[in-house]
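Figure S7 source data.
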Amino acid sequence: MREQRRQNQADRNLLTWERLAQSEILPPEDGRVISHFGYNVEVEDISGSRFRCAIRETAGQEPVCGDRVQWSRSGNALQQGVIWSIHERKNALQRPSVGGHVQTVAANIDLLLITLTAEDPNEGLLDRYLVAAEASAMEAIIVVNKTDRLATLEFLEQIFQPYVDMDYRICYVSAQTGQGIAELESLLRHKISIFSGHSGVGKSSIISRWIQNDAEKPTIGASHELSGQGRHTTTVARLYHLPMGGSLIDSPGIREFGLVNISKGVLAHYFRDMARHAKPCRFANCSHEHEPACGVKEAVLAGQVSQKRYDSMLRIFHSLPNT
Ligand SMILES: Nc1nc2c(ncn2[C@@H]2O[C@H](COP(=O)(O)OP(=O)(O)O)[C@@H](O)[C@H]2O)c(=O)[nH]1
Ligand SMILES: [Mg+2]
Ligand SMILES: [Zn+2]
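Tokens for the predicted zinc ion complex:
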């Protein structure tokens, strides 16, 4: 009964093509998807005005945050429109969803911000995100937040030195004190970035520093993501404009992260410190564990690849499906 009532409510709010087609439809134009809520999508035109849009079947697939689309506004003055097609994606961030499906979280991303905390930097998670970034041709930046909780960064710098050696960028920041935020800002300028990382690491707190308008600020505190209450919670992802130029996508959806479309055979090639050692492996599908003539194992023995990174690679390897 309650379910039925909620369904009716949802139907009333839903903008369908049939409803929209009762008014005039203007000629197609280009736009960008800002967020996706339920069956509707919010599209921004080139001047920054936002329109709630229905999706035509011609679009072929679900538009996601960051998509460039061809759409039409309606003549009804209600800031409504319809999406006809999705322009080809430069890349897409995906994750596994229920029932063995793949969910696309966002598209056309320049920078993947991998957010960790100073108190508990989770390197296992970091290595997974780095693989995702390499595989989808996104630049990765490691953001270590809550540095205000530590007296010194020395210990962290030791942990992250191997990543610096691999040419990854590390930003030590504190959303609370503002430390390091200016440097991060300069890296995000004119780029489309997406935040990833566990719930509670401070993604929304960092974004809030750049959003002037209180009504636009993301909610801080992780609980709303779990309960489904509060502002902006039904969206899978939401794009914010940054005052210094560029945009940032906040996404509660990718707090649980898994790899998709990565096969066991290519995994080591996405580890920057292992890629060149994996090339000479005798077997194309080498697991780098038991096989003879394995370049990766030899590199570990020779001290060119750390045992820690090797173990991390194997853990991910065993978590991937056998395809
Ligand atoms: N001490 C400290 N706490 C922070 C910092 N950034 C965020 N927090 C707190 O961490 C909690 C989660 O923050 P939130 O931004 O919602 O994290 P999100 O889930 O990653 O978006 C909140 O209680 C914040 O006040 C920081 O730099 N230092
Ligand atoms: Mg958040
Ligand atoms: Zn091998």
